[in-house]
Amino acid sequence: MSALLLQPRTWLIMLTVAAAITWWIVRNDEPREALPVATDTTPTGFYMRGARLIGLGEDGQVLYRLHAAFGTQTTEDEPIALSEVTVDYAPTAEVPWRIEGGQAEVTPDRAHIRLFGGVVATSTGNTQPPAVIRSASLALDTETQIASTRDEVHIETPEGSLQGVGMTAWLREDRLRLESRVHGTFTP
User: Which domain holds residue 145?
Assistant: First the structure.
């Protein structure tokens, strides 16, 4: 019976521990604020490595082949953003072009391609020496087959060179117009 006789101090410690345990149990059983429900954090859209897009003309023939190191599109209503871009434009035409740029945007309907970041366009026809066009940006309308820019343009051909600001090129007709501040040097 001596084991049941505890000092008042021991009883006080045991009651304090029991109260703390009871408080902890009751506290954990209390309803808590609802935790926020995890939302879907999966990104929409897509990304591509080694992207390849092929555009067809009205006749069903390949109009352009676009290659890019990387591409993204956040939603289907936004343009496709591409980097390290090469466009082989009208590869079956008499005067096809290879157009390269650091970056590009393609509209969701694929009707417009805007290249920027040091654009270089080179004619790749086998019958004539190449012409090279350099500009900060170039917009291609794939439906009308017109390329244009408002930026400074440098054109190099075997016959000489031209510089100007702004350009419109009718690719189907193999015709080009510089808009303003045109200067050129030609060899006789």
Answer: 47-186
Q: Is residue 55 part of a domain?
A: yes
- Per-residue pLDDT 10s for the chain (188 aa) are 445 555 667 766 776 777 777 666 666 555 556 556 666 665 667 788 898 988 888 888 888 899 999 998 888 888 889 999 999 987 666 778 899 999 999 998 888 999 999 999 988 876 677 889 999 999 999 888 899 999 999 999 888 899 999 999 988 787 889 999 988 888 87
pTM: 0.71
Q: How far apart are CA 85 and CA 120, in angstroms?
A: 11
**Structural domain count, the chain:** 1
